[in-house]
Amino acid sequence: MEDGVNYYISVAVLAIALLVKLPALLRRWRSPLVRVVNALLLMPCGALLFSAPPTITFVNRTTGISNLSAVLVHCFLCGFSCACLVLMEYWRGDTDVQAGTRRRVRAWLLGYGVLVACIAGLFALGATPVERPRDFDTYYANTPFIREMLVLYLLALVVAGIVTMKACWRWAVEISTSDGNPDAPGGSTSLRAGLLVLVVVSLAGVVFGVSKLFAILARWTGNDWDRLNEGVAQVVSLIGVLIGLGFLVPMFGPRFAARIWRPSLALIALRPLWRIASQPATGAANASLLHTRWYASPEQRLLSQLTSIHDWMLRSRAHYSDDLRAAAHARAKEDGEPEREAVAIGLAVMLRTAAADRLRKAPTDDGQSTRAALALRSAEAEYPDLIVHISRALPRVTDAHDIDVDAAPDTFRSGASSSREATSA
């Protein structure tokens, strides 16, 4: 069974994609686009299943027809080629399929239906007594009727691959050029990734078909290029994985990015601020922090940390210093920082100092804290991701000496300059 492991892995990936698409098929089975997408997954799944050497042996011995599995693979590949072309027609057409699109779809279905019938008929007319699980194409390249069958299915595969590759590439480029459009649909990055995967799949199909054609032509001229045929056969199972990924990425990509990828990046960025917020205000543990289960998702962890940080900021409000914030902000602007970064640096200096003052129970100033709280609220309204930027700014003032409110500009200046010197070094 080791020879068929790669094939069965690809079949499993495609089967998962089919199961994911199944609810949509059951809800919208009247939609031709939904049906063709499922066919586009089913056909390579069947082709890879019947391409696995253990399956070939089982089918041939069960039916008593030598190499029957080979012709089944060829029919599935023709069905896959037809599904690709039909999908391109629906993609190019309007939402409400126009009459021209229907005519072209019927033409493709009829043409490939005749092709499958010809492949079955030519196989029945030919003679393939010797079972060839791995080199059927080249072994029977000179056999009457079988050679015509091989050329037909390979040409169909190459033509469909070229058309699909061009259409997917053109669509991916259109999505790339519309990324700057605020009205562009969401999830365009995942859709583009899925289209690019299908471009690679189509290119691999073209290379596969052309390589086999050259190997067959070599046999016609008395040469032996069987290694070329064997080489592409080694990677054919990867095509199934790519096809499955090509449909799974657009479906699950936006969800993965929103619930796992972006929250994980935000959690990493929040570490400096979280370390300050999680420091106990007394010798006891900080019981006010929200704690998440070990199995909590990144999205849940991010929400918990943001809530705890905001609670900590509220408890530290009495120690805010608006003069310190304004001085740090002004100094950052003098150093050439953009406005958003300068705002974040000013607030980072203020929050770090507030944390230190709260630990040593320093005196508070209601006027300073009120003005600083208003400035913080205004900045949060203007910059939705302000907390993350504050956290990223904290390491730039971490190495500064304990900040004294009265000497804030000088202290921040020394801390910022030392940070810049360390960066340049």
In words, what does this structure look like?
- This protein is mainly alpha-helical and 425 residues long.
- The chain has two domains: 2-253, Rhopdopsin 7-helix transmembrane proteins (Up-down Bundle), CATH 1.20.1070; 298-424, no CATH class.
- It is 76% helix and 0% strand.
- It contains 17 helices and no strands.
- Helix 1 runs antiparallel to helix 2 (32-51), helix 5 runs antiparallel to helix 7 (146-177) and helix 9 (226-269) runs parallel beside helix 11 (298-315).
- The two termini are 58 Å apart.
Can you tag this structure with a few keywords?
425 residues; mainly alpha; Rhopdopsin 7-helix transmembrane proteins; 2 domains; 76% helix; disordered C terminus
What layout of secondary structure does this protein have?
Layout: H1 5-27, H2 32-51, H3 53-63, H4 68-92, H5 99-125, H6 136-139, H7 146-177, H8 188-220, H9 226-269, H10 271-277, H11 298-315, H12 322-334, H13 339-359, H14 366-382, H15 386-393, H16 395-398, H17 408-424
